[in-house]
Amino acid sequence: MRLKISLLKEPKHQELVSCVGWTTAEELYSCSDDHQIVKWNLLTGETSQIVKLPDDIYPIDLHWFPKSLGVKKQTQAEIFVLTSSDGKFHLISKLGRVEKSVEAHCGAVLAGRWNYEGTALVTVGEDGQIKIWSKTGMLRSTLAHQGTPVYSVAWGPDSEKVLYTAGKQLIIKPLQPNAKILQWKAHDGIILKVDWNSVNDLILSAGEDCKYKVWDSYGRPLYSSQPHEHPITSVAWAPDGELFAVGSFHTLRLCDKTGWSYALEKPNTGSIFNIAWSIDGTQIAGACGNGHVVFAHVVEQRWEWKNFQVTLTKRRTMQVRNVLNDAVDLLEFRDRVIKASLNYAHLVVSTSLQCYVFSTKNWNTPLIFDLKEGTVSLILQAERHFLLVDGGGIYLYSYEGRFLSSPKFPGMRTDILNAQTVSLSNDTIAIKDKADEKIIFLFEASTGKPMGDGKFLSHKNEVLEIALDQKGLTNDRKIAFIDKNRDLYITSVKRFGKEEQIIKLGTMVHTLAWSDTCNILCGLQDTRFTVWYYPNTVYVDRDILPKTLYERDASEFSKNPHIVSFVGNQVTIRRADGSLVHISISPYPAILHEYVSSSKWEDAVRLCRFVKEQTMWACLAAMAVANRDMTTAEIAYAAIGEIDKVQYINSIKNLPSKESKMAHILMFSGNIQEAETVLLQAGLVYQAIQININLYNWESSK
After folding, report:
1. What is the dihedral of CA 616, 619, 623, 628, to 10 degrees?
2. How confident is the model at residue 122, as a pLDDT?
3. What is the pLDDT of residues 563-589, one digit of tens each?
4. Keywords assigned by UniProt (predicted)?
5. What is the pLDDT of residue 72?
6. Of the ranges 150-164, 411-425, 554-568, the best mean pLDDT one
7. Dist CA 403 CA 5 (whole Å)
């Protein structure tokens, strides 16, 4: 991925440009110390002066009023706030009319920001005050007052907190009075810029110590750059939170959210004082010290799947390469490409107005349909269909382009969903709620209605990342998730009346992925890379779970690695420095899954005898019990030396009635309550009492 820079020969402003802001993906406003506000149209390449401000107003910061989400085709922002050196902020219309000027601070107003809903405005100034204003410019409260100038401010994702600078310190202050304030030393020099992203909840800071840093919302450091030659004067998150841009003297850098750098450009700009991302996240504008406005396009993104590699070469052109035969196809689009995804033998591309669906078998005839909204922020794929997320909602389409469903829940905010908080399988959509992070909503893919009896999945802690398994029957669909304590849990998606168990699979798990070909789960645990060959073992026989795992040392991936994909038996991991590492796992467990799903038990036993691995036998034992095939279970348990279980299975086989066999199999898996119910329904009351006596369950056996 890199930046394609465009810079005019002659600057349009006579003095330094202090701030820039996008109205649509093709239109930008810039303000300068020459008192001009200039409008740039990127489609026609024209620039026009909107207004010349009075000579005593030197603009410092500009922020457009946020668009109402989910309105057709990116309606334009109509008003912006402009802060200036005379202690006022000005509300200015799109046409350049100053609607209102408000005396705000003593000395310059250094930054002004609307919250995400557009219901409040925060301003900060040289006088060290942080003030909250209403939409119309009425003072609501003075949030804080300190002795040093506040250079930058940002709203928290829920608009309930404000982040601001205080010399070398960063401070997060909630709007509620008496709430706890978070403060930490972030840089060795004065902090010049901050930004807080609403999708990934991460914070960026830039300082005079020539470093930029990434923090989580608790103030824990995630990344710190090497010192640059000059102070970092600007940082900005891309809207989807996957990338950020960094500006310094003659320097523009594109970075991944984890901190490592994709591209470094050295345009002739002077210091870049302000960076703004376009609404669709495809381009950046920078306000330059020498009067220029620098534009940079994000190009050369790459998508890989099996033997195909797709590269965005220009704004409207993609190149597809098949590495097996070196065949190259060029895909041309009418509008600029915004998002794309390549998986399950399909490439889905969203442009500003349309969606294209290509099959990897035929690149020449895509299926094209128009999009309801403007900007797609996320594309997720499953084997049978794909999901588009934009500002207005979540939409599920088949690969033939047929609209299937659009799940909704109260208080849904689609602008903050990402690949960690939404998951898709052939029959289920799972969405983690932002209002209450302990809740996961589950929907039927075909109808968009809530799953089962309409209950959502509720966990005792906040959930960080969710993932649905991709194969098997709908009734067996499982969801794995990581919570705030980094524990990995698994539970069933189908929830009818009875409370489904949420069972812990592992601890200190940082990232996870399901295989796309069978229900094998992999994750990075503390210092180990772990593969759960048959996660359902926890429902059948928890004792043998450790025997069904594959583990290897993960220290080679350095800290904070991330699993990018798990295709077939190949896992791709991105290290903290941005490099990709590929790991191949054994192909045999996948073959075993295939045999068992088509009930080829003899072939499964033959495969295990051929491979001669304990993990395979342990997986087969659990699969056999889950599918009630006790003959195979007996062979498999004998192979891993679980003699007591072999004897118990033998005793089950000799039982007279079908119901009592069934009850004892349930007991074998630890489902004592269900076993008792089966016996009572069959009228075998004596046996039901007997199993409770055997378990010393005196209360029940009365």
Report:
1. 90
2. 96
3. 999 998 999 999 988 899 999 999 999
4. Cell projection, Cilium, WD repeat
5. 40
6. 150-164
7. 38
Q: Do residues 164 and 152 make contact, with C-beta atoms less than 8 angstroms apart?
A: yes
| Distance between start and end Cα atoms, the chain | 70
The tokens describing 42, both together, are: 């990127």
**What does the angle CA 65 – CA 69 – CA 71 come to, to the nearest 5 degrees?**
105
Structure tokens at 89: 């902020």
Paired sense of beta strands 191-196 and 182-185, if any: unpaired
What's the chain's average pLDDT? Answer: 89
d(CA 174, CA 159): 9
- ∠ CA 79-85-91, nearest 5°, is 15
Provide the pLDDT for residue 102.
93
Q: Considering the entire predicted model, what is its pTM?
A: 0.90
d(CA 150, CA 164): 7
Residues forming a β-bridge with 271: 249
Q: How far apart are CA 615 and CA 296, in angstroms?
A: 52
Here the tokens at position 48 are: 């026009």
Query: Around Cβ 287, how many Cβ atoms within 10 Å?
Result: 31
- Look at the block and give the residue holding tokens 């320097």: 251
Half-sphere exposure of 444 (CA within 13 A, CB side): 12
Residue 49 carries which side chain, given as an amino acid letter?
Q
Q: CB atoms < 10 A from the CB of 14, how many?
A: 11
Which residues partner with 41 through β-bridges? 27, 46
Helix axis angle for 658-668 and 643-653, nearest 10°, is 160
| Alpha-carbon separation of residue 325 from 322, 363, 609, 686 (angstroms) | 6, 15, 37, 70
Determine which helix (DSSP H) or strand (DSSP E) holds 17, and give its type and residue range. Answer: strand 17-24
Dihedral class, residue 424 (left if φ above 0, else alpha if ψ from -120 to 50, else beta): beta
pLDDT band at 656 (very low <50, low <70, confident <90, very high): confident
Residue 184 is which amino acid?
W
- The candidate with the shortest Cα–Cα distance to 578, out of 208, 253, 218, is 253
Distance (Å, whole) CA 37 – CA 96: 8
- Tokens encoding 396: 């599920």
Q: Distance of CA 663 to CAs 21, 94, 497, 646, 702, Å? A: 68, 73, 21, 17, 19
Tokens coding 14: 């006579």
- Lowest-pLDDT range of 150-159, 374-383, 460-469: 374-383
Q: How far is CA 561 from the centre of its chain?
A: 15
pLDDT tens string 400-447: 999 999 998 888 888 888 889 999 999 999 999 888 889 999 999 999
Burial (CB < 10 A; 0-12, 13-18, 19+), residue 402, is exposed
The per-residue pLDDT for range 479-538, each reduced to its tens digit, is 999 999 999 999 988 765 556 688 899 999 999 999 999 999 999 998 899 999 999 898
